[in-house]
Amino acid sequence: MKTVITSQSAPAAIGPYSHGTEYNGLIFSSGQLPVDAVTGKVAEGGITEQSVQSLKNLVSVLEAAEAAQRLFLKQLVTLQIYLILQHLMLCTQMFLKPTARHAAVSQ
How confident is the model over 43-92, as pLDDT tens digits? Predict the structure, then answer.
């Protein structure tokens, strides 16, 4: 059965889209922008801060689907990030920093 996922903690989906969809135990989500749901503005600072905000929005979608209780480290999670070449090293550094990684996931 297909279920549409809506998170109150993520910015509103633009157009005819939803935050995510759950189907047969799998959760699909895409297009999580670096927009703060409270201010409605893109995260300030740069690519690192914007990447962290996008991940926070994704985590809120997973929480809305009550997936946090079902996710285990052994499960496969695919995350695709599209960057221009000049941002590649900054984003790589962000994922290597435990504090940035955990800031996005622990909220």
Answer: 998 888 888 898 889 888 888 888 755 655 445 456 666 666 667 667 66
Spatial contact of 27 and 5, defined as CB atoms under 8 Å apart: yes
* Plot region of 51 (φ>0 → left; ψ -120 to 50 → alpha; else → beta): alpha
Beta bridge partners of 20: 5
C-alpha distances in Å from residue 67, one per residue of 5, 34, 72: 11, 21, 10
* The model's pTM: 0.70
Q: Which residues pair with 27 in a beta bridge?
A: 22
Look up the CATH superfamily of 2-105.
Answer: RutC-like (3.30.1330.40)
